[in-house]
Amino acid sequence: MNEPVIEERFEEFLKGENLKMTPQRRRVFEKAFDVHEHFSVERMYEWLKAEEGPDVSRATVYRTLEVLERGGFIEAVETGRGEVVYEHILGHEHHDHMVCRVCGTIAEFQDEEIEALQRKNAEKLGFIMTGHMLRLSGICGDCAKKLRAEGTLDATLESL
Amino acid sequence: MNEPVIEERFEEFLKGENLKMTPQRRRVFEKAFDVHEHFSVERMYEWLKAEEGPDVSRATVYRTLEVLERGGFIEAVETGRGEVVYEHILGHEHHDHMVCRVCGTIAEFQDEEIEALQRKNAEKLGFIMTGHMLRLSGICGDCAKKLRAEGTLDATLESL
DNA sequence: GTCAGTGCAAATACTTTGCATGATA
DNA sequence: TATCATGCAAAGTATTTGCACTGAC
Which of B113, B118, B124, B133 sits 20 to 30 Å CA-CA off B96? Predict the structure, then answer.
């Protein structure tokens, strides 16, 4: 799915909600789909401030990300390090996350078997599942390699 | 495991960290193991204020819960509704959570198969897993029953 | 007696909100 | 033109911190 098509969906969504398309909303939207990393409110604000274009205040970034989330265009991911980051959704399969406690990198993975087991567990308790979040935390491959080379892997594991 | 034994462990832990046992720490600790529900910082503070005993300030509640978490006596659980609650650990098997989006109740479940699959996925990416968190969200059995009786289950699901 | 802990109030960080102004459909 | 959106600054909310005093060991 390419971006213009996604942007049309955004415009349709806004129309359906009686909201207006503004330069600010467009900038936030486009940035969210241009980047291929997870971003925080602050990072989005910094990006937009640094680039050319109509000003977007922090308040508007908050407000727009809320709209995008409600519309199912982006999703909030809690990193477990006390911050929330967002990722765009359309064109992405559902996935879960692994957060590196050393460098903060977020890797993604999918496992249909796990999903199925989640549904099974919910059913067993009469729980109607509308969503889930699975996050592994630890040390990513790159950091593990570096730390091993330095001989500090075990010490780092201790300190976490 | 009964409480006196756990409390001894807490005292040993404090000693090992060069920390002191104080009436405030004792009150927070005991309350955390007396209750069998998840609690927020604020709730713990309110409980202690309402009951007899040496005053415990909010700052001390924050500080003590941090110590308890570091010592592995309690664990923080993000509810996904923008709050963090704690649960005591010792004497409890590891488990995951289902959070009801209607009443906020947190149910627990365990599934060794899911755990194994998590480890497998981490290994596959060279990720050293030190922890994980799995949270299902949706509507708990009780709420589902009530809503069905009222005929508002579908509407509620829509609105989530 | 020494060092750590406590309460308090101030500070911080993050997010939301009221309101006057400006822009979109 | 009727809403809705924006920016700004103020207000919340949640948590942390500096400091003088108190208490545990």
Answer: B124
